[in-house]
User: Fold these one by one.
Assistant:
Number 1:
Amino acid sequence: MTVEVRLPTVLRQHAGGMSSVPANGDTVGEVFDDLVRQFPGLAGQVVTAEGTLHKFVNVYRNDDDVRYLDKLGTKVSDGDVISILPAVAGGTG
Amino acid sequence: MPVYDSVLDLVGNTPLVDISRLSPNPTSRILAKLEGQNPAGSVKDRVALAMVDEAEKDGTLTPGSGQVIVESSSGNTGIGLAMISKVRGYTLKIVLPENVSEERKQLLQVWGAQIMFTPASGGSNGAMREAQRIAAEHTDWWFPFQYGNQANVKAHFEGTGPEIWRDCPEVTHLVAGLGTSGTLVGVGKFLKERNPAVKVWAVEPPAGEMVDGLKNFDEGFTPPIFEANGGQDLLDRKSIVRPRESIEWTRRLIDVGIFAGISSGAVVAGAHRCAAEVDGAVIVVVLPDGGWKYLSTGAWTGDLDEVVERAKGTMYF
């Protein structure tokens, strides 16, 4: 499967300044492995050495937070958009 | 109709209205809880009142003392706190991102709050950090810190949740916005204690896309009340709803006679997705405020593309 990965500003420096890159895999975890193969500077940024998502990172498959799907095991399909966003204080309030 | 001693007695007990006409699935109902009916106009009246009540109970605040309260807000908590501060006799300072709607700024001034602006690029995150800095400098000021104040959760666990259960015990899904997480955690916890089969769906704006200037992910933030109350285990789903869809649904709410704010459009979009996926659902969706504060954005009457562009630069959630 080929998906589009959208990178937040803080990660673009590790990906040649690009805001969006194609990557391959059947799950979100495999997509991230491919991403790190392409851009070794991204190692450890999104997925920790322990193999879990960084605490202050939210990852979305087409706008659904993967923490509430199957986390890094969440399946992806061709053409899905995977967005990585920093967790920040939200709006309401 | 009883005579109320104070306008503060009008906080809570908001109506639940059937808006199933907007459901894409004939077997799934959608019920909207209209938090705009609160006296200062939003769900945050509950939170503001609960936090102040708690601080008065533990002796931190004394009514009529003129004590200074400092809090960060994108508007609604500030407006609720401002109204309560006026009634109870406190001085309120609100740290606010500069890109909130004009009405939000004016409403704070109506109640006599002093406003300190933070840059638009920092969003709520920036305002919160600044309030934390100011509070650390002025230790004699009271900083409720809604993101970490358990009274925020309690307001919903003891108020909003029981009201929903009383009015609609057949509820199968709760859909609400995620900001401080107070509504989702408080109501979600209450409903799941009554019926563990209830599902909790969170809707959020793409806040992380809007906040610039984070040097790395370690500067990120998760509300302490979300962590402390096991928020991650309470939520069953969390989705982003973008400005365009939020405004489209704010407009569709007009078809059922509901004039609500833009974040209400976002959560109803979430309820619509839920109804499309689940048969036989009874979805309760919490509409945070009314439409009044957003008239200047042209949300209902302006060209959709232009309104969406403007919304991207405005704090509406």
Number 2:
Amino acid sequence: MLSLITNKHRLVLIDGSRLIVEACAQAGADVYVGYPITPASLIYTYASRRFPSVLAAPDEITVVHWMAGLSAAGRLPVTATSFPGLALMVEGINMAYMMELPMLIVLAMRLGPSTGAATVGGQGELIFLNGLISGGYTLPVFCIADMDDCWRLPPAVLQAAVDLRSPVVLLTSKEMVMTQRSFDLGCLADIAPVQRQFYDAPSPYRSYDAGGDLVPPFLPVGNPDHQVRLTASTHDVDGMLRSVTEGVLANTRRLQQKVEKEMPILHDLNEQAEAETLVVAYGITAGAAREAVATLRAQGEAVSLLVARTLLPIPHVYYEILDRYPRVVVAEENLRGQFTQLLYGQRLPPGVRRVNGIGRMVSPERIAREVRSV
Amino acid sequence: MSVFLVDAPLPYCKGCGHRLTARSVVKALEAVDASPLDVVLVTDIGCQGIVDRNFATHTVHGLHGRSVALGAGIAMGMAPINIGMGKRVIVFIGDGGATIGLQHLLEMARLNVYMTVVVHNNFVYGMTGGQPSGLTPTGYRTVITPEGNPLPQHNLCQMVHDAGALYARRVIGQGDFSDAIREALMVEGFALIEVLELCPGHGAKRNPGMRLRDLAERADCEPWVWIGGVRPAFHLDRREGLPSLFDEVPSVETRFTSSLERRMAVLVSGSAGEGVQRAAEFLAQAAISCGLHVTKKGSFPVTVGVGFSDVDLILAREPIDYHGVSHPDAVIVTSADGLRHNLERIQAMEVGTVWLDASLEMPETGAQVRVVDLRGRAGPRSAALYGLMVFARETGAVPPEALIEVVRASDIGDRVPSEVLEGV
């Protein structure tokens, strides 16, 4: 939980975008690459005033390639976009994943399909993100659930990008980045800058030699000490394009292994001992779930709540939690329950219900009604 | 063997023009007295891209057509500490890559990124079987145009020159053309060398007897140099000590009292460009000054100056987890745009109050409707603020003096007519 500094209140009206950008800057993200798109443009605007370096790209394909180049040179780049921009970035994100280049992509979700409604929120990209990396590899995906998360998740996610040597996605929604709320800035914990070390051994650097670990040390291109080889093609530990051999494939498999084993698991679990129903939510729907659970408990119903912040890869602990409850209600703002499908597949087990909707936020009343009907 | 190479036999077909280009680049690097680790070689997809294994420089092998953008990111990331100190980015790309990545070439030329692009133009996509690219001359025979390419080719050098490149040069890829590449490497900004080559596998075979010089002459793509105006290379600023974004957010002191007893949802609905969002922001800040929790959810079309502009405000004594509003308790409607957009919500109201501008048609609703000449008394741009003043005075949810103080303390405080705030 967020540590509270309660002796000095500073009440403001603020949106999530401002918290996200300030948190990124304080964490040490040093270059923002922007291309405007609603509802992520506010992040771009704030970043232009706060990041040490800002680039205005001519399109989202350029955004991700500039980010990859900047990352290869040792910078820690950030961008924010929405689905249409993300769609253009897909090939470049795959490249950065294969090259193992840290970067942060904030995805402010909105109503789709296609251009949909740019000023209406949504949670419709999770399955797309789950399959974004060709071959079934997992792109690390985290999700902001509330205003506190706008502050504490960016540093954690940036650290994960560095620690994993990987692009990471931080999901949010139009409703989080554009809605303003009363907020006490005095409650914000200090942010420690991202800890990052570059390879400094005297022996020749091998770009993808993880040694006994799963994440290879990083060294920027252009350094005066060691040759660095990066490639998006299937390669060996030296970064040399190779035909498919078991050794080369082992290096490729490592991409998944490192994400599965080194990914931080961030979630909130609020359980009641006697509860037999668990409400599961993430992102903007977490607020509605909290309110629904509070209402139900006030009415004497026992119910537990899981708010997921690490979404992909799905942490094993989520399954352990789910298995403890005969009844589960998963709430999310999309057509058919994307997180639900990732958790359970297309056919829901008995006792599992989903609460979905498009075009407006899922309400606490709908979640509470579903809990009562399970 | 050159210090720039780790493996001398280059991985190209016999007679491939790429070999001469790579050799000329190596010779040019030796001539400018660079050291291998001062150079980042970024290669594209295509036959030219498989040469990075031979180089002792840093090497980065990217995606088809995107090597120019990738290389630019590296160049900008290394700058400013390395520009002018011998560090340089060289991009190898083919004519196919230059076609799919044409915008990257134009944009990096426009920005004048410090990099040297070597376009290996052998007129075909060699790795995929010899299809025509945007740089294939008219009449050139390819696997899918056996009678000859019917289309004209781009004049790439002219295009990047027009986009702002400091230096562009087309050379015939025969013999030693390292001097031309050396000249490009000396340019402190965006430079491009287009090397005309023949692909032995897919070009020479389908165009027997074709000589590069004849082809260049016939296709009007003869060797030439385009020199751009002198201007500094793109410099990525690194600003230190920037103030916190929180410094520009006004703090709100809690010095007023609200009569609010239970959570209240307020809908403010009007037209874009008439100050609806700002007025609601003032009310939200005034609510905070009463110790209330508040959320302000704006809704408007992407064309921000046309159509409706709505705000759902929630005022509460307890923290607000969910900021959606299904059924507002209070509604202020200032324009026909606002009424039209929220007619269903207003019609669905069974209780509550609607403050309706006098110019608007009375909706059927279970709410109490109070008709007020909002636009007439305050003008269109202040109608929403005026309506919220009316709301504040009549409900006491937010004391009017709290709202007046917030407005007066704002950057537009001295421009809001006093009758808007005090003449209700």
Number 3:
Amino acid sequence: MKIREIMTTNCAVCGPHANAAAIAEILWSRDCGSVPIVDERGILLGIVTDRDLTIALGTRDRRASTIRADECMTRDVETCNPDEDIADALEVMLARRVRRVPIVDRNGHLEGMVSLSDIVQASSRPGASIPASSLVKAMARIEDRSAPRQNPKLAAAAK
Amino acid sequence: MKIRELMTKNVETAPPETTLAVAADTLYRKDCGAIVVTSRSGEILGIATDRDMFIALGTRDRLPSELTLADVMTKKPVTCSADEDVKNALDRMRRTKVRRLPVVDAHGRVAGILSLDDIARCAAGSNGANVSEADVMAAYKSICEQAPFANPAISRR
């Protein structure tokens, strides 16, 4: 099954200068946990999660309206393209220990997002070739606390 | 398998007056996603996740040092006890759509925390656990179904 068949295409996006208060409104109203950051042409620049933002705001003790997406986004983001198999997206999640992968075309233009829960939901559909054992292993691995995976920039101001 | 065998014992706890500036530092340093809020005598009062904290900070636009865990926590969260079977906990997560259950003793004192991922790690291993991969998948699906953000303490104002 191709990523194209299960990815979310109408995902909310923000520009790099969006502040954390604006991002909070999006995460709240769209009930999502992360927002891809794109430039004016729609090229993916990075991603921010609710966790990144909590840590960035809290450890610097700043108001949400005073911190911008480009101050706390993860720039080194692993992506997939829409014609890859959903197993490839799962591979990225395992390797990077993330729950969400941005999907881009060959020019880096954001096409959508795929989450672990999208893959779990799709796994029971015909044509999905991912066994439950692989998904459960992925869930266990992504949250493995024995291997830290913090974005070092997040707590830049933390002593 | 009993919850006791699988739970994380050194759960991060903090009193309700802890500011979100201090709580965020704990989330970062301890690489955890939630803090269990306890009274002076160790009884559970609530739980606050990284998401709860961010939605409150972002939508209220206040300084993290001005908001406390008491302002954002889910009060009286769903819990489990250490001597229950892991299968019960998984069932409770599926029904209540939460990924983490604080583990409390008969007096409501916090003894640990059990996450869906702990159970996934157990099901993925081969140590004779009585939870199947299918059970874990069913719980995960239920939790991920679009559930409205359900913490009444978090609102725009």
